[in-house]
Amino acid sequence: VLKVLSHIDSILRSPRAPPLIYRRSKGPVQNYIKENGQECGFEHLPLTVEMWADQLMALKDLHRSLRKLSLELVPWHTADPQDNRESIRVEDLQFIVDAILEEIENKEKNSQTPPLPTLFAIVSHFQKLFDVNSLNGVYPRMNEVYTKLGEMTNAMRNLHELLELDSSAPPTVVVDTVGKLCDIINENVTEQVQQLLGTQDIHSIIDKLEEHERFFPPFQALIQDLLCLLEIRNLDDILPTVRNLK
């Protein structure tokens, strides 16, 4: 027993031991005497050990709380390798705290993330611009807008190349160029129609169309009557049939 007490006393007197552990006795004589004859001052040791036991149990709860906090603040960190240990050391807790502090310091130095009210205002503005009724519809609408934007970008790039425009030309220039091209095509079509009808005067074209409307119905009726009288079906058979009748 004396040897055990001597070993305990040497631990208590160690420079690494907290001052709370060792207290020199104030009583006249103690029941436990060390081998060197000096009195031992650890009558309060059971209370201290009980306090330590409570603190060790509290370390587990503190470790669990720090792990939850770590998952909230730095969820991309891998799981703590000490999670499955039966005993938790102060070093384990310090490791988690240091990781959280380091991440927060890096965010303060490098992060340009706006505050939550600003982010909320941005999302609300997006919902108003693109008619999104709920937060669940924000991401699908973002994807839709991104797809449409890509299609429009490709179309504008192709139009720039086809119209031989500079890539920096704004959309208004592209629209004006397409409009001029359509005007040129329409003018060419008008000229071709005029050449086909043999006139350069629009009024003459109108007169010819009116003559056609007056002439064609009676002519069509005459041809139908001839086909019925001659009992034939084709226009090409009218003249041969009439010659035979002569």
UniProtKB/TrEMBL annotation:
Its main location: cytoplasm. Keywords: Coiled coil, Cytoplasm, Cytoskeleton, TPR repeat. GO terms for molecular function: gamma-tubulin binding. It comes from the Eukaryota. GO terms for biological process: cilium assembly; regulation of microtubule cytoskeleton organization. It is found in: Cytoplasm, Cytoskeleton, Microtubule organizing center, Centrosome. This is Centrosomal protein of 70 kDa. The lineage of its organism: Eukaryota, Metazoa, Chordata, Craniata, Vertebrata. The gene is CEP70_0.
